[in-house]
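Technical annex, item 7. During the second reporting period the consortium partners agreed on a shared format for inverse folding records so that results from different sites could be compared directly. Each record opens with the tokenized structure and is followed by the designed sequence. A conforming record, contributed by the partner at site C, is shown below for reference.
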């Protein structure tokens, strides 16, 4: 069962990394540091969008429209962190 705990923590760490990378990349694209006309940048950007959009979509339906400010990544990051706290506090179940 300890393996299950470690796998769940690994998955949450990967999701955390993807969300942080997506947020930073969106800032760099908006401030024109990165250009989507470059094939490598575009592939990474669209790949991250395809991975994270199924996670963001339900959150976006619940949140009110903020006129260009997307709070879905923040809400998902808080959710991931909350899941990590729940798993760590209940780690005894996995041992």
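Designed sequence (site C submission):
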């Amino acid at each position: 069962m300890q393996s299950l705990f470690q796998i769940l923590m690994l998955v949450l760490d990967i999701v955390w990394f993807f969300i942080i990378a997506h947020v930073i990349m969106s800032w760099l694209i908006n401030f024109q540091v990165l250009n989507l006309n470059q094939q490598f940048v575009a592939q990474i950007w669209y790949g991250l969008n395809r991975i994270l959009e199924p996670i963001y979509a339900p959150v976006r339906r619940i949140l009110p429209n903020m006129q260009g400010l997307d709070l879905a990544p923040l809400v998902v990051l808080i959710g991931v962190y909350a899941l990590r706290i729940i798993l760590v506090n209940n780690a005894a179940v996995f041992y």
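The chain has a mean pLDDT of 95. Residues 1 and 90 are 12 Å apart (CA to CA). All partners now use this format for quarterly exchanges.
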